Amino acid sequence: MRITNIIFSIMVLNIFSGCMGSQGIIEIAEEDCNSPVERGVVISFDDSQNIESWGQNQEFLKSHGVIVTFFIDRWHKLEQWELDILENLSDDGHEIGFHATNHGDYFEFLEQNLTEKDYLEIEIIPGLNHMDERGYNATSFAYPRGHRDTNLDVLLLEYFSVLRGTQSNKDGSESWVAECEDLRVFRSFPLITTEETEESLEYREKWTEFGFDSIETGNKTLLFNGHGIVNGQYATSLENLELLFSEIEKNNLKYLLMSDLGR
């Protein structure tokens, strides 16, 4: 089966680069890395609207020995059955991370002349309190839509040990093929969804090959993110996940949680 049918989708164009200035950009040369990553893979899934789909496929993940990180928004609106699913997933060893109070888009805050401090007060602190009330202490955070900058990173790293963006903004972050943990801010490579076209899969083939080819030597961590499993928003099929897991097993990669990159 062609590798284009295997795994992922990617946003290679830095669409939002015009929103970012160069101030505060952090660059670390490879030889200056103080905390090299562990050889492995981090898989994460986002958004509370997909909780049901995760629960429906809990046994699928368990049967493959896979542990992932689930990033949850809107904790104040979760119903008991959703909390029960998250508890079951947590009992299986999966990590429950934070994904903002209302899934607020940081770039939209900036467009309204709000600041990173406003984002902290509106989208972070209230949701963390709701999460704590439900018995969870989040150490990892995923930016909604991956929209971030280094100013916000600095504030949020006072509350979380590790931050996850997406592929769209490189400034001040580690790669999705990570070699170092120093910045504690990582990009992530989106999983293929059921809506992908053959054309887009062919376009992304080189990135799929690049990720696994590059990890054949040395210690690197690959990061992938998705949303729903089979059902829900931007769903990934079981077939694509099985192919991903097979590639991970073939490369003898360890499954890591997002918080493992911040220790």
Characterization of this structure:
- By secondary structure, the protein is an alpha/beta fold.
- The protein has one domain: Glycoside hydrolase/deacetylase (TIM Barrel).
- It is 32% helix and 14% strand.
- Strands 1, 2, 3, 6, 8, 9 and 10 form a 7-stranded mixed beta sheet that branches. Strands 4-5-7 form a 3-stranded parallel beta sheet, with no helix packed on it.
- Helix 5 packs parallel to helix 6.
Could you tell me the mean pLDDT?
87
Give the CATH H-level superfamily.
Answer: Glycoside hydrolase/deacetylase
**Total strand segments:** 10
Radius of gyration: 17 Å
What's the CATH C level?
Alpha Beta
Give, in order, the helices and strands: EHHEHEHHEHEEEEHEHE
Concise account of the structure shown:
The chain is α/β, with parallel strands linked by helices and 263 residues long. The chain is built from eight helices and ten strands. It has one domain (34-262): TIM Barrel, CATH 3.20.20.
Topology:
Blueprint: E1 40-46, H1 51-56, H2 58-63, E2 69-72, H3 80-91, E3 95-98, H4 106-111, H5 116-133, E4 140-142, H6 150-156, E5 162-164, E6 177-178, E7 185-186, E8 189-190, H7 198-214, E9 221-226, H8 238-250, E10 254-256
Parallel strand pairs: 1-2, 1-9, 1-10, 2-3, 4-5, 5-7, 8-9
Antiparallel strand pairs: 6-9
Features of the shown structure:
TIM Barrel; 7-stranded mixed β-sheet; 32% helix; 263 residues; alpha/beta
